[in-house]
## 1
Amino acid sequence: MLGTTFILALRSIRRHLLRSFLTVLGIVIGVAAVVAMVTLGKATTLQVQKSIASLGTNVLQIRPGQGFGRGGGGPRPPDFDPRDVEAIGKQITGVTAVAPQAQSTGTAIYEGANWSTTINGTTNGYFEVQPWALASGRYFTPAEESAGKAVCIIGNTVYTNLYKTRNALGTRMRIAGISCDVIGILSTKGQSGFGGDQDDVVIMPIKAVQRRMTGNTDVRLILVGVDQAYSTAQVQASITDLLRERRHITGGKEDDFNIFDTKQISDTLSTTTTLLTNIVTAVAGISLIVGGIGIMNIMLVSVTERTREIGIRLAIGAVANEVLMQFLVEAVVLSCLGGLIGLLLGQVAVILLSVLGQLPFIFDVQINVIAFLISGAIGVVFGFFPARRAASLNPIDALRHE
Amino acid sequence: MGAAAGSAVADGIPDPLIRLRGVTKTYGTGATAFQALKGVDLDIATGDFVAVMGPSGSGKSTTMNILGCLDVPTDGEFIFMGHHVESLDRDQRALLRRKYFGFVFQGFNLLARTSALENVELPLLYRGDAKAERREMALAALDQVGLKDWWDHTPGELSGGQQQRVAIARAIATKPAVLLADEPTGNLDSERSVEIMELLSDLNKHAGITVLMVTHEPDMAAFAKTIVHFKDGLVERTEAGHAQGERVG
Ligand SMILES: Nc1ncnc2c1ncn2[C@@H]1O[C@H](COP(=O)(O)OP(=O)(O)OP(=O)(O)O)[C@@H](O)[C@H]1O
Ligand SMILES: [Mg+2]
């Protein structure tokens, strides 16, 4: 009997194709909106997490000063000493790697091409703290590090701007007025989550940068990799104690350095994007309910309009339940079809917005299934009342209906 | 043989196919109540072709609705094939209609924007027939009314006479025991009307379907074996029709 009812429902939807489509427009839009919002929300969360991950997960960044937006007046707190870096590496438990960083800028020149870029002086520890694969070449040797040799590993942006597609390994380029041998080319990392091209960089041993460029042994930034088994908060606290001691900050005096915990930031941002996604999805969900009311409205009109048809069906022997099922199935089939169109539309929206917003494209099976089931449920809920009205019609009156 | 109680016995059937006893029908209640039937007694034997005649408002359609199990009498008995229809509920009557009755209406009442074939298939669909069987029976019914080649036309693409023939095909597709037709030729010109009457008469004679038909036109009633005259909610008289002598069985 359900098979029959299904055929009848499909036939009558086909008979009123335009109206059927208009009927389900609300569901179409609602489902599309819900799917698009949830998927884009997840994509955004993923994007944020990826941005944070590009800084390295479980990484502490230690800078002199009191952090973003704090401090103000007074003399600038001193940079760190290379021995601070050493101390952190040796004395703090739960630390996997430490990398000091000294920065400079300068123009890189190779055979007539020149490119202004950031020069990052560090150690091999840098590549341990935040894994960054080489496209070709090698990292520094211990000898190069300790001697501060003028060797450099270049980011992809620098490579393409100076060398196009030519071989760079083993060549000697000039950077900020000194010659340096190119020993490695980094794989592409892309934009950072905060804007800015992460591949626009030349990495050299920190001693080379200090001696030949900055002219001092100051360390502007220390990156600390934290073992997964340890809590970043705990390691952060130990480092704070150590640095306070080494920088002679006593009693109630505030730290003159700050430690930025990427994991904590990542968690905060994820919570925020999830909350925003939920709010937007709830709004989209409301349009689903509005869509359901649309279905009920049109189904009621349809019952009135098709009173004579109902009369014919009853006269030739349809029992009340069959008429009820017919209209109910019709409503459910309609809303499910609307749901399907909505899913397709939602995917299109996701693809377009992913491209526009430079978000990763994801296909979330779960939300598609849920949205589809909800559209079916809406058909049942909002189709029931009109269907019951149809089933309760008196065949004689219905047949006489104009 | 007329529609009197005795005819069925003469046919060797213990009960008539249809028996109405003291059937009344009152529309409305209280001050606005109106008694459309005032105690109708009527027996119809299997294989009969009955024309119901009478002035407007005499209760012909009301009686047909009761006979077709579309409505129940306010009082009295309606026995169909041994079933006391007056005490059946809505769905039981629907099942009875599905099994034994075919309906033809004055206004054709075909589903719009639906092919002739799908219209004819409709009662078979409710009966739960399989697709192939449904198609075969529907096409056979269309063939019987001479519209086999028109199976894919919608009512809008058919003339009035053709639409009524599709309606008849729909009514006979299930091979019903009784065909009820309330003014089947009311919307047709006389030439088309005669064609329809010939078709009904043919179905009665060769398919063995008992036909009950309301008509205002004596020309159409002439095709019947029995003519029942209604007046003021009562059966005024019953007479043998012109087709009486051709009766088979
Ligand atoms: N649903 C109804 N409610 C109230 N009165 C009704 C209803 N149906 C029929 N009647 C009344 O019952 C009487 C008999 O109606 P019925 O339709 O049986 O007449 P009829 O013999 O078929 O007439 P016609 O030849 O005009 O079709 C009429 O007076 C009519 O007004
Ligand atoms: Mg009438």
Note: The radius of gyration of chain A is 33 Å.
## 2
Amino acid sequence: MKCKVCGGKAVISLRAYNSALCEKDFISFLENRVFKTIKKYKLINDKDKLLIAVSGGKDSLSLWYILNKLGFNADGMYIDLGIGGYSDLSLEKVKKMSDMLKRPFYTFHLNDAMGKGIEAISKKIKRTTCSACGMIKRYIMNRVCLDKGYNVIVTGHNLDDEASALMGNLLYWKEEYLWKKGMMLNEEEGHLSKKIKPLFLCSEREMAAYAVLCGIDYIYDECPFSIGAKSLFYKELLNRLEDNSPGTKLQFLKGYLKFIRQMNIEKNRREMKYCINCGYPTVSDKCNFCRIMEKYGIERNIIFEEYRPTYEVFE
Amino acid sequence: MKVEFNGKSIEIKKVSTVSKLLEELAINRETHLVIVNNRLVTEDYRFNQDDKAKIIKVVSGG
Ligand SMILES: [Zn+2]
Ligand SMILES: [Zn+2]
């Protein structure tokens, strides 16, 4: 196959775009796609202070790398869920990227803060590991932003993550989540940080190829708790559709973006209240996180450890 | 021929191209990338003698 831009030797075929690209042109294609997404959907303003959730995986590490390359300075946040060797190795990868980019990152150690790792906590609060993990991550990401002066949370969710989550919500008609699976969730001053997903239109395959081509050292094994997860099954189904009709996943999400644009206008916002304990948005007097932790008597001492890259940071 | 598949070395019947390799292993090209001699290659790549092929999956949980 030949590169559609320069005619050189292609390294990747992109059937959704009816194209194939060489190494150099693919790298600029992907970076440009992220840049255009940020601009078109106005994800980042000049005054924004960005904090990216990094897991050590290909998506978040590549995104951290791309953002800094594009001139959007972002610091990192790593949540150590206390999953033994997996968490330690992930942290190593994050440190390596922090050193390379010369950007600091924070670490939240679940074991230190709550006396337990994610497995024990999920058992105690009677949730699946993935659901407990999601709740803790959302809460902690928001909390570190408020504590450390960032107003935007960046996550590495890609096209496949979003398409499979959307499919899950549609299959069970989870209406309450349907409208908020877009590319950006707005902030609520002093309570909730803005959340953005600049990889919304980049597929998992494209992200893996980018990481490989740029020599990004990421954790290849998946989280041991995600094995058998429904989201993985949905991804597989969507990829079978994609194989038959390239471009399906992209159409699915682009159509959704158009749909929620109309829906959001009509959506009448119910009045927001804030947790009396921590200030997180809630519908009752205490937020979901605080209520669950109190109900099951889990102590929480939320502190963030700061890692400075091994080179000095000049700002 | 030998290929590395998800970190393990496996022995399969000799195939001529990357497409054939994926077909042989019943792998969806959307979910895997093929790296030959440390370089990413497209599905039409034709194997040479002594090529070192590696298949990596791109899907992760979450
Ligand atoms: Zn080219
Ligand atoms: Zn609260």
Note: The first strand of chain A starts at residue 12 and ends at 14.
